[in-house]
Amino acid sequence: MPDSTGEQPTTSPKEQFDDVAREFIDFVNRQVGAYMDAMAGFAGHHTRVERQMHRVLRRARSANPDATAGAVVWASYEDPTQPDVIHNRIIRAEDYLATNARGGSNEQQQARAVLVFLFTYWEDEIRPRLAACSGVEVNAVRSDIMGDLRIVRHAILHSKSILRAEKHKGLKVVGNLFEVDKPLDIGYEDMHKIFVLVKQDCARLMIEPLGVKDAAGQASQLVDIAIQKLGPPGSTSPGNVP
User: Fold this and answer.
1) Which of the residues in the chain have pLDDT under 50?
2) Which of the chain's ends, N or C, has fewer CB atoms near its CB within 10 Å?
3) For residue 23, is it within any domain?
4) Which 3 state secondary structure label does DSSP give 198?
């Protein structure tokens, strides 16, 4: 909107750069929320079915876990009280528990999907815009953690989630999280570390142009980021309200 003089306000390339970085940080935070909600959902499914298994044993008056060997979970998105419910999944209870257990295949699938999504959004949307704001080629916008996620993404999509030795050697910051020539095992703590590293590198990209000494070292001390956008001096934008 025009300002009081009737002129269209302009933002500097640095402000535009920071806006894009802030958009990516917001995107990362949404992935953190979605990942945590999914983990809670898997844990809830595991707990409910595990309790039901104990009820089966109690009714059978048996302490032998084999008494539930034939138990089956019928899962549906529809109301189970209604007739002719279509089940989207029929699975042995023990397999259902293993799938939803901590470190199980559901957790791994969710973690891998989030990492692929993070890198793709960075590479296709954020990185080109950061380069445009800086007036440089896309390859000039560099990030060690996003470079590592490129390698992880390739393993997920093209190598059955197995990180080969030649690819593992290219990891700069998350190499200690993954074993060579074994399927990726991405735990909750690993995801938390990756989320923090991504946001730390966003902070580095934002403060390096300010001439801050050892910007990378300063950014590495952060555990999270909040960005407040201030309006011009004397304005009534939210950032300037006392």
Assistant:
1) 237-242
2) C
3) yes
4) helix
Q: Specify which residues 89 forms β-bridges with.
A: 75
Contacts 24+ apart (CB under 8 A), 60-69: 68/93, 68/94, 69/94
Q: Can you give the pLDDT at residue 162? A: 97
What are 156's two structure tokens?
């997920």
Residue 155 inside a domain? The answer is yes
Range of the domain at 117: 18-27+108-227
From 144, 142, 153, select the one nearest 119 (Cα to Cα): 153
Task: Note whether 102 and 44 are within 8 A (CB).
Answer: no
Task: Confirm whether 198 is domain-assigned.
Answer: yes
C-alpha R_g of the chain:
24
Rounded-to-integer distance, Cα 19 and Cα 16, Å: 5
215, part of any domain: yes
C-alpha distances in Å from residue 151, one per residue of 103, 163, 200: 22, 8, 19
Residue type, 173: V
Residue 217: which of 234, 233, 226, 204 has the closest Cα? 204
Spatial distance between the Cα atoms of 163 and 156, rounded to a whole number of angstroms: 8
How confident is the model at residue 79, as a pLDDT?
76
The helix (H) or strand (E) run that includes residue 20 is helix 13-59
Q: How many helices (H) and strands (E) does the chain have?
A: 8, 2
> What total number of domains does the chain contain?
1
pLDDT of residue 240: 40
Backbone CA torsion sign across 89, 92, 93, 97? negative
Tokens of 200: 């730390």
Query: Residue 81, CB half-sphere, CA atoms under 13 Å: how many?
Result: 0
